[in-house]
Every structure is written in C-alpha cells, then in structure tokens.
Amino acid sequence: MTQLQTSESQGALHFAYWVPNVSGGLVVSTIEQRTHWGLDYNVRLAQAAERAGFDYALSQIRFTAGYGAEHQHESVSFSQALLHATTRLKVLAAILPGPWSPAVVAKQLATIDHISNGRIAINVVSGWFKGEFTAIGEPWLEHDERYRRSEEFIRALKGIWTQDSFTMRGDFYRFHNYTLSPKPVQQPHPEIFQGGSSRAARDMASRVSDWYFTNGNTPENLKAQIDDIRAKARENGHRVRIGVNAFVIARDTEEEAQQVLADIIKHAHVEAVHAFGDAVKQAGQASPEGQGNWATSTFEDLVQYNDGFRTNLIGTPAQIAERIIALKAVGVDLVLTGFLHFIEEVEYFGTKVLPLVRELEAAAATRQSRALEAA
Ligand SMILES: Cc1cc2nc3c(=O)[nH]c(=O)nc-3n(C[C@H](O)[C@H](O)[C@H](O)COP(=O)(O)O)c2cc1C
C-alpha cells in the first residue's frame, strides 16, 4: 500500500482560500498587505481564485473589532455577492449559533442555493471571542455547551433541509411539523463545515459535520487528530473530510519566502497578538481537557490567526507542492490557504504550485495502479 492510500476518502485535493471580508488581512502585523476587505477587491479575488483552480472560498464572521480587525462585512450577504460574481467557486458562509437560529439559516441558505445553482456551503463556528458575544448581548455559554448547541444546530439544519414535517425537541431548538420549501438544490443538503480542534469539536465532527477544519499544524500532529476523528466517525457510521489551514508564502527562492515570514513577524503588532493570544487560549482552556485550537501556539504562531505558519507552506513552489502531498498522505482532503497579498499570490499559487501538486498526485495514482496490477 502506498502512502497515498492511507486516507479513507482520498480523491484530488481540494483548495480553499480565506475571504478577506475582515480588515487587516490574516496576519496581526503592520507589514504592508496588498489586500482589502471591501467588495470590489473581493470580487476580483474570487474571480482570480476561480481561474486559478480554487474550489472553495471561506468567508469569516466577526461582529466586532478586536485584535486588528476593525471592519467586518457580514458573512452570508458577502458570500452571496461573491456567488453572483463567479460561476464555479463554492462559497462558505460562516455562521455562529446563538446570533443565528437554524430556522433562519436553513431558509436563507436554501434560497441562496437556488440563486447560485448549488454553490453555497456553511461553516458552523462555535465561538472563541467572549467580548464579541457580550457586545451584542448574546449569552456566552461555557465551552462544551457551545459545541452541544452547535451539534443540535447542525442536526436541525439537516432535518429541515432533508425532511418534510420536521419535528425536533432539543435543549436549544424546537421545531414542530415544519416543512421548508423550496428545499436546497444540493442533495442531500449544502455541505456543512465546522472549525475547532478541542475534544468537543472533534467529537462533533465525528458525528454530524461533513468537513472538519482545523488550525495549521505539522503532518505528524495532524495525523494524530485525523486518525482520532476518523476512528470515532467510523464507530458512528459517519464520514468526515478534513481541511487544514495554511498561510502560504510561495516565492521563486526559499530565501525570499523565509524573508517574508521574518518580516511579518518582525512587524508583528505585539499588543494585539498578546491580546488575541489571551482570548483564544482562554477559550481553549475553558474546554474540560484544557486544550483547543491554540493550546500550544507560540507568539510567532499567533501572528497568523489560525496557526497557519505551522503548516509550513513557505518556500519555493516545488517545496510547497511536496509538503502539500505530505499533508494528503496523513489524510488531509482540503488545504485552506491565506496569503499576504491575496490576488497576486492566488494567481502565483494557481500558476506555479497547483500544477506541481496535480503532477505529483497523478504520479502517485500511476504508481498505485501499477502496484495493484503487479499484486
Ligand atoms: C478554518 C476555521 C475558520 C473559522 N472561522 C471562524 C469565523 O469566521 N468566526 C469565528 O468566530 N470563529 C471562527 N473559527 C473559530 C472556531 O469556530 C472555534 O471557535 C475555535 O477554533 C475554537 O475552537 P476550539 O475551542 O474547539 O479549539 C474558525 C476556526 C477555523 C479552524
């Protein structure tokens, strides 16, 4: 068996990018970033990403400023605008249970699914930013309660999207004989992603989510997480695919790429990085096992919101393509990318890195079929 057969759900790798619908880009640094949180820039970016071969765009939900994100466009409406400007890209709207009810989301996304010919998806996020919840008068549940609510939220969405006369009596949500019409175009329903790495997040993924998104990490650490989730999912008769965050710095030489990383960290907004680190570590420590997405993040890691430097997609196109294949070998199905200068780097990635990844995937597939023939 070759390395590439280790995952139970391997096809061609998928690629997503973070939609910069929140100001300040994806690094907490005062370094120049040629990006913008507004619509015009994001439309051009979505079109460039689609041409470059990206499959998904992940929009973000933030209600308030904090740690360098002064302006934030709302996720569902922004996703819709990007869908209007593209033809193939799938766009993920991020939703926080609490501010949103599953009834509203199910209805809203079913309509967007029709308008976009089946290209909307959802990222259910469970919350890490207590100050944001307090600011909008939303109760802040303790860590595992947030995930218990998110799981019920996802079960409600699936029920509404797939059944007529849907009835549910949960601890957080209740439905009585409810029939949504029209149902979404995508069958059985739009894809459901989730973010988070704590025990509660993993357990939820192994029961209800189609996709599990995790923070950046090394292949070894990712393998431990993925094996754990997949083993549990198998016990539950559930299939979950895995996406990992990576901040990509692809340059013609390794020295240039490493210099960009050093410059990002040199210009880190120290106060904002510490404040962000305190908030997210507090969120993770609040889980019973005292862990979570950012449990072991260093100062340097926290300069990128979701530990994207740790995945180490920093170097030449050839180095990055090989490292992406190493991620696939431990079971990753999707690489979620972030960039310093979004449009130009998405284009570079599409021209220089993606073709190498596809070549390596094709070579591995050929080796695999030869080995099968010989067996
Ligand atoms: C890829 C990814 C995207 C996320 N997007 C958002 C977002 O848009 N808004 C938000 O409030 N939280 C977002 N989160 C945060 C998670 O939903 C979760 O609250 C956080 O990762 C802490 O999870 P944990 O307690 O399981 O470690 C995202 C997380 C990941 C991994």
Automatic annotation (TrEMBL):
Alphabetized CDD domains for the sequence: Alkanesulfonate_monoxygenase
Residue stretches making up the Luciferase-like domain: 28-333
Enzymatic class: oxidoreductase
Keyword Flavoprotein: yes
A GO molecular function held by the record: monooxygenase activity
InterPro entries to which the protein is assigned, alphabetical: DMSO2_SphG (IPR024014), Luciferase-like_dom (IPR011251), Luciferase-like_sf (IPR036661), SsuD_RutA_monooxygenase (IPR050172)
The UniProt record lists the keyword Flavoprotein: yes
EC numbers for this chain: 1.14.14.35
Keywords: Flavoprotein, FMN, Monooxygenase, Oxidoreductase
Protein name: Dimethylsulfone monooxygenase SfnG
Lineage: Bacteria, Pseudomonadati, Pseudomonadota, Betaproteobacteria, Burkholderiales
